[in-house]
Write a structure and sequence with these properties.
Elements lengths: L6 H21 L5 H14 L4 E11 L2 E12 L3 E6 L6 H14 L3 E6 L6 E5 L2
Parallel strand pairs: 3-4
Antiparallel strand pairs: 1-2, 2-3, 4-5
Helix pairs in contact: 1-2
Organism: Azospirillum brasilense
Protein name: GxxExxY protein
InterPro entries: GxxExxY
Length: 126
């Protein structure tokens, strides 16, 4: 089943992915996650996008906060971007983003893996 995203959200994710490829093509493979995170934030802001870094999302249970997730990057309060430097994107990475989406109620997440010979991108829906 293919879920269709709002055209504005789809266009926004394409802009974020484009920025990710710009960072990867410029820096290449081999750096730690924080280097890619800082570079991607710089690139997104240079493209006039509103970017939050290490954005907290509280998890509530019966009116009490029982935990907090921190998204690597949030773009335009619409897209969670989770960065990895790994051999591959696995189910634990996908589940992590799904949990972030559930906590934040955002419509889409992007997993960007800078640990492979070419940038790996995965869209994640709640």
């Amino acid at each position: 089943m293919r879920v269709v995203l709002d055209q504005r959200i789809e266009a926004l994710t394409e802009r974020v992915i484009g920025a990710g490829f710009e960072v990867f093509n410029t820096l290449g493979q081999g750096f730690v996650e924080s280097v890619y995170q800082n570079a991607l934030v710089h690139e997104l802001r240079s493209r006039s996008l509103d970017v939050g870094l290490e954005v907290p999302f509280g998890i509530s249970y019966k009116g009490s906060c029982v935990g907090t997730y921190f998204a690597d990057i949030v773009v335009e309060d619409q897209v969670i971007v989770e960065l990895k430097v790994a051999e591959a994107i696995g189910q634990p990475h996908i589940k992590q983003v799904v949990n972030y989406l559930r906590a934040s109620r955002m419509p889409v997440g992007l997993l960007l893996n800078f640990g492979t010979p070419s940038l790996t991108v995965r869209r994640v829906l709640p």
